[in-house]
Design a protein that fits this description.
The structure holds 2 protein chains of 2 kinds. Chain A is an alpha+beta fold. Chain A has helices at residues 12-22, 53-70, 101-118, 139-144; strands spanning 2-6, 28-35, 44-51, 73-81, 83-85, 90-98, 121-127, 132-134. Chain A has a 4-stranded mixed β-sheet, sandwiched between helices. In chain A, strand 7 (121-127) and strand 8 (132-134) form a beta hairpin. In chain A, helix 2 packs antiparallel against helix 3 (101-118). The longest helix of chain A is centred in the middle third of the chain and has 18 residues, at 53-70. Chain B is 30% helix and 23% strand. In chain B, strand 3 (52-55) and strand 4 form a beta hairpin. The chains are: A alpha+beta, B alpha+beta.
């Protein structure tokens, strides 16, 4: 299990390949990647991601640990960036390795649902007219936790 | 204790962290003390349903006691992922 909170970009191919090689007896690998998308009204120049340094790693480790205990996983990887990101940049990724795909898929969804609402990150959209907008949490994100 | 603010809570209050001397018993008491200080606190804490609190870096709630707590953080609902 590895959790990384970092400002620098990561190479999705290298991370995914490294994870797959390290777990080549697992049978099933699932990866998910989050990308900076344009603002609903368009004109996104950058997304600034703020986090709570003391709490972030702890929260991510707890979420990953719970996934490891709850599903039959061989390994878990969580990478989450902070700082100023351009549209199209990779924000974060999770990877899960399991003997069977059901565990790998479900655990990856669990990780994403909890990362969304329980990891201390906040996103601010910077628009080309100078306006800024904090991305609001959605009720549906909070509701998504109840299924677990 | 250390009090930390993040995202728009930080912007409304105008600082990321401060040391606060308080005898507040609960988080809600601390919020009331801060709001009584200056308008910018009252503006930031106007709608508590839009604010989350962490005590010593664990999510908590406004009824929670502050005894023994070293770090309180206030922030909007999180938007990771």
């Amino acid at each position: 299990m590895r959790v990384s909170v970092q400002e620098e970009a990561f190479e999705l191919g290298i991370e995914a390949e490294g994870f797959a090689q390290a777990n080549n007896s697992a049978g099933a690998i699932v990866t998910f990647t989050g990308i900076v998308r344009d603002a609903p009204q368009g004109g996104l120049v950058a997304m600034e991601i703020e986090h709570y340094p003391g709490m972030t790693s702890k929260a991510l480790n707890e979420i990953a640990q719970t996934a490891m205990e709850r599903w039959s996983l061989a390994d878990t990887l969580v990478i989450h960036r902070y700082g100023r990101l351009a549209p199209g940049a990779q924000i974060m990724m999770v990877a899960t390795a399991a003997r069977h795909r059901k565990d790998a898929f479900e655990a990856a969804e669990y990780l994403m649902d909890y990362l969304k609402s329980r990891a201390p990150f906040w996103k601010k959209e910077i628009l080309n007219d100078g306006a800024t907008d904090w991305v609001a949490a959605k009720d549906t994100d909070e509701d998504a936790l109840t299924r677990w | 204790m250390e009090v930390l603010y993040f995202a728009w809570v930080r912007e409304r209050i105008g600082l990321p962290r401060e040391r606060v001397e308080t005898s507040a018993v609960t988080v809600a008491d601390l919020v009331a003390e801060l709001c009584a200080r200056e308008d910018r606190y009252a503006a930031a804490f106007a709608d508590l349903s839009a604010i989350r609190v962490a005590l010593d870096q664990e999510l908590s709630d406004f009824d929670a006691p502050l005894r023994g707590v070293r770090e309180v953080a206030f922030f909007p609902p999180m938007t990771g992922g």
